[in-house]
Amino acid sequence: MSNKKLKVLLIVEQCNPDWASVPLVGYNFFQKINNLVDATLVTHIRNKPALEKHPEYENI
Question: Residue 35 and residue 44: Cα distance in Å, rounded?
């Protein structure tokens, strides 16, 4: 079996590490899944400023 990570597209409309409740849960799901696979995140543009503070996530 190959050691290459699986490529996954995640569509998480509410994904923001600076907000509480559902947006934070969405971000935490993305963060944990991204540790297991090569994930690309699709989210709402309003989340962009908060996600840009995390340069380790380039596939957004």
Answer: 22
Domain count, the chain: 1
Q: What is the model's pTM?
A: 0.83
Three-state secondary structure of the chain = CCCCCCEEEEECCCCCCCCCCHHHHHHHHHHHHHHHCEEEEECCHHHHHHHCCCCCCCCC
- What is the domain range of residue 28? 7-51
Q: Is the pLDDT of residue 31 over 80?
A: yes
Side-chain half-sphere CA neighbours of 39 within 13 A:
18
- Encoded amino acid at 58, one letter: E
